[in-house]
Specification:
The chain has no helices and eight strands. With 119 residues, it is mostly beta strands. Strands 1, 2, 3, 4, 5, 6, 7 and 8 form an eight-stranded antiparallel beta sheet that branches. It is globular, with a radius of gyration of 14 Å. The chain starts with 18 loop residues before the first strand and ends in a 12-residue tail after the last strand.
Length: 119
């Protein structure tokens, strides 16, 4: 059986350390179980979320800042309060124009983001 150490009802975000994931980009995994994961990604101006794809469905909310979001062959500039949807296996990425934060939700959870310990 797989254990999910962040499977919590209430999360104190200040108690979770930032993880550096690229130049000008850091993230916090807030909570997850096998089916769902919420991650906060903080960008400095000019930070890049490189073009990539994964088998997870993703929905992201722009908490603050301004981002150029590319999904497949379309790019849009999004600002605080906007959101976007990414279907599985679709190429996507982000470039931060004004320092900001994205709140990403994945289903199923991103195993590649965590060290899963057999239980």
């Amino acid at each position: 059986m797989t254990t999910f150490p962040f499977e919590q009802q209430f999360v104190d975000a200040e108690a979770i350390a930032w993880e550096i994931v690229g130049e000008g980009v850091r993230r916090k995994i807030l909570t997850y179980d096998a089916n769902l994961m919420m991650v906060v990604v903080d960008f400095e101006q000019g930070g890049v979320g490189a073009i990539h794809k994964h088998y997870h469905t993703q929905i992201s909310y722009v908490q603050r800042g301004v981002f150029a979001i590319t999904i497949a062959d379309e790019e849009r500039v999004l600002k605080a309060g906007d959101a976007y949807f990414i279907a599985p296996n679709v190429l996507h990425g982000a470039v931060c124009h004004e320092a900001g934060t994205l709140v990403d939700v994945f289903t199923p959870m991103r195993e590649d983001f965590v060290q899963i310990t057999p239980g």
